[in-house]
Amino acid sequence: MNRLYPLTFKPIFKDKIWGGQRIKTVLGKDFSPLPNCGEAWLISGVEGENTVVSNGFLADNELNELVEIYMDDLVGESVFERFGEQFPLLFKLIDSSDYLSIQVHPGDELAAERHQSFGKNEMWYVIATEKDAELISGFKKNITHQQFIDYLRTKTIKEILNVEKVGPGDVFHIPAGRVHALGPGILLAEIQQASDITYRIWDWDRVDHRGVSRTLHTAEALDAIDFKVHEQYRTGYVKRKDETVPLVGCPYFTTNLLELTRPMHTDLEERDSFTVYLCVSGRADLVHRDGRLPLSGGDAVLIPAEIPDCTIVPAPFTSLLEIYVES
Prior knowledge:
The protein has 327 residues and is mostly beta strands. It folds into two domains: 9-224, Jelly Rolls; 244-324, Jelly Rolls, CATH 2.60.120. It has seven helices and 20 strands. It has helices at 22-25, 63-70, 72-75, 77-83, 108-115, 145-153, 218-224, and strands at residues 9-10, 12-20, 37-44, 52-53, 89-96, 102-104, 122-129, 134-139, 161-165, 171-174, 180-182, 186-193, 199-202, 244-249, 254-260, 264-267, 275-288, 291-296, 300-303, 309-324. Strands 14, 15, 16, 17, 18, 19 and 20 form a seven-stranded antiparallel β-sheet that branches. Strands 2-3-5-12-7-10 form a six-stranded antiparallel β-sheet, with no helix packed on it. Strands 9-8-11 form a three-stranded antiparallel β-sheet, with no helix packed on it. A hairpin with a 4-residue loop joins strand 14 (244-249) and strand 15.
């Protein structure tokens, strides 16, 4: 069996009522045929929505097929023991030209009970924004279930939600249960569990080109919502050039930021996990045991767990997210 190498994938594009064209205009990725490309799924282990390898001898194979064949050599021993033959994460680019629905995702227990699926914990890294861009994350005041329903009935739900002005480099961790929504004018990278379960709470009375409203899941959402109010919803961190800067650490993924002006070598052997590099700006070469792979904004590459090390060589500057699963 030929040995594994860094894998790239053919994105899956999603046309969304709120989508735009920034994946093309900001990142230069002229690869979407959709008029309102809201999402590009760069690497996906979601059942029925597996991304397909685009490079090397494994081209045209689905990701979960490779997990089944290569097991811990691909994902790491502890990851394979925990998640089996389903790749556990989903990596997206999201472009919002309008408000997304106000929504919430279930946790593992509720998702398993209702959908035989993982739950959905996720994080956002903002790549680019238009002026006065904002998003919603959590509540700004304590309310009861009944008060929440009353705000929904009067279509004033935004009054009780925490609204944040955002700009490039902002980070938000969205654990399962947190009510959230993106506003218009935001391009971001999303890292999440391999789940596509969303409970749509409110969709701004919006209809599609046929005059049809999207389905709401208010009753299901009420069982999933975490009503706790937090002092801070934005993830704080200090930018440092040419260092590994931790952003989000949770049981499902660890995400670091690398802003590089010179080469960075990383020893991957002790990680016992695959590693994904998602380039959010600039250009770089990923140098590995079998060669080098160019990366630019919007590209993602999966480094199998059996690869012992790699070096990122910026050209001349790059920002990347580094993601893996803690053992």
